[in-house]
Structures are given as structure tokens and as C-alpha cells.
Amino acid sequence: MITLEVIDNENKSINSEGVNKKMIKKKYICALDIGKFAVKMIGRDLDNDKDEPVQITFRTKYDDFKIGDTDEATGNSYKLVYEGEKFLVGDNGVKKSNNTSKTEKLHKLCAYVAISNMLKENNEEQENEIYMFLACPITTLKNDKLKEEYKSFIANDYKPIEICVNNKNYKFTIKKIVIKAEGSGVIITEPKHFENKKTLVVDIGGLNLTVSTYNNFSCKIDDRFISEKGTNKLLIDIINQISIYRNGNTINEDSALKILEDGGMKSKGEIDENSIVYLDNAKEIFLNDILDTIKSWGIDIDLYDRIVFVGGTSQHLDKQISEKENLSHAVLIKNSNWTTAEGLYTLAYAKFKDLK
């Protein structure tokens, strides 16, 4: 009688010495907010509760090169190879996206670079599984087909992903993605502004303005609105105002962004005090445009208990918001560019913590 030995090859691999080893599964959770201006990610190894979560951010920009180029990543940038192509992602990137869609190569590359920051370099006896909460644009959230396409796109159809980042190799599989609305994280991080209240959340991002109305934490899908009036629109207003100040001499978008970040235009390394009023004018014009857009959606801000401003661009409008008489009930969340990622990370940990 012949006895057949059944070998279970699941979760096993052949290592470099030709020995069949059982694969160790490492589970990671993360919250990912791939904004049009910057990427924010918070994540951790579920087996390691002692260390603080990894928190990473970089600009949503990239450039591509031919294999063999010697360009190195400097500053807050990453050099990577994915599917035989070489890219530079982050601050030193050149290409960015001005489309509302996030099913673009740029967003996939940014997601994988962010994930790599919480992993260790390839271990042939370890299988990395990623469980993710992902921020989603309102336009995608309202369409079931687009939601599934977005999840499958970022997850690489849930197949293993191999990537080389700054000359280190990583391999992982995204096993689960839960998507949530952009700007929704604030109901987790700042519940006091929502409990038993009618609240308007104004999320000003890199490309989009997203407005959501909440009644005691609840927001219906039809109570969310979106317009392409984010940082890009504010930079146009700054360019126009600084052009007036400089007697018609214009500046480019990068210079406008530098003026916004510095709080005024610099001359010989020092802030030109006379330029500040023009920067403030641009911010005032931008905020008024935001409020007019909200009004055009049939929203009366006077009928709300709280107006909550979030998003990275909101941080630049502190003075203008606080001085608006009709915004006396408004609050600007501190460090609000991280609000979405922080809120979604809390949800991710609550949902996936028992997987370890």
C-alpha cells in the first residue's frame, strides 16, 4: 500500500538556501490621505503596540526617469522603481495632478511609498499584509462603481506589490481597504463640535473645497458638496494681488506658494512688510469666494451651531476666519491638515486591532 504525503504549501516559501520555510505573516494598519497637495499616512505594525505609529507626509508630485539615470532623491523625496519604471516622488517631483480623479499613477505611487515607510526591508520569510482606511473624494464616494474601482486601483487588485524605495526592496499585499469621505476624520478627533449639534464642516484642500453638513455626527451622502476651490484657487488670488503690488510684474505659482508659506514676499531674505497687506487681501478674496460658493449650494451658515474649518489651506486663513462677523461660531481645528488621517487611523485601529 502506497501512502501519499500531502504537503500544505500555503504560507510556505523556498528561501535562498533552498529550504522550505513557513511564511510569517505581519499585519499592518494605516490611514492614508492622498491629497492633491500632500500625502499623509499614519500606520503601525499590529504586533508592536509599544512604539508610536509611523507618521509620514510628502508632496503629491512625481517625475519619471529612464532606467540607468543617476538622479538621487534629496530632501523630502523618494527614488523608487515600480514595475520596471523609475520615479522620483515627493518635494522634488515635477508632475502633479489637477484632476478630481485619484485613479492616476501618481496616487498609486504615493500610496506605496507611504506604506513602505512603516515596513522593514524585504524578508523572504515574511509576508506583509496591509489593512487600510483610505480618504476618498466626494465625487467618488457618491458612485458605488467608482468606489470599487478606486479601492481596486490602490490595492493593485489585491495582488502582491513589489517596490524598491531609496534602494531598499519591499513586498506587501493590501488585503482590505475601507474608504471614508475626505474631511470626515474630524468627527472622530473633535466630537465636541458634533454631539447634539448641527455642524458644517468646511474642508479646504489642495484642489477641492468639500463641504459637509452633520446633524449629531450623521451626514447623508446628498449633504456633501464639492468644488475645485482649494489651494490652487488661493494661489491664483495671491498671484493677482502681488502683481498689483509689483505694478503688473507677475509671479509664478511656486513663488505664490512660497509667499503663502512665508507670510509675505521676501526681498533680500527679509519679509517685505508692505507685501503683507496684499497677501491678506488675497486671503480675504479667497475666503469670500468660499462663503459665496457655500451660499450658492443653498446653505445658510447662520443656521448652524458650529462651522468647522479643516484641511491644510484653512491653516492660512486663521486671521480672516476669526475677523469675520458672520463666522463668530466658526472654529479652525489646530493642525487640521492631519485631521482626516488622524481620525481614520483611530477607526482603522478600532476595526483591525484584533487581527494580530
Radius of gyration over alpha carbons? 23 Å
The domain tally reads: 2
Instruction: Classify the secondary structure makeup into a structural class.
Output: alpha+beta
CATH class of the largest domain: Alpha Beta
Order of helices and strands: EEEEEEEEHEHHEEHEEEHHEEHEHEH
In CATH terms, the superfamily of the largest domain is: ATPase, nucleotide binding domain
Molecular structure report:
With 356 residues, the protein is of the alpha+beta class. The chain has two domains: 175 residues, Nucleotidyltransferase, domain 5, CATH 3.30.420; 114 residues, ATPase, nucleotide binding domain (Nucleotidyltransferase, domain 5, 2-Layer Sandwich). It is 27% helix and 30% strand. It is built from nine helices and 18 strands. The chain has a nine-stranded mixed β-sheet with strand order 5-4-3-9-11-10-7-8-6, with helices on both faces. The chain has a five-stranded mixed β-sheet with strand order 14-13-12-17-18. Helix 5 crosses helix 6 and helix 5 packs across helix 7. It is globular. The N terminus is likely disordered.
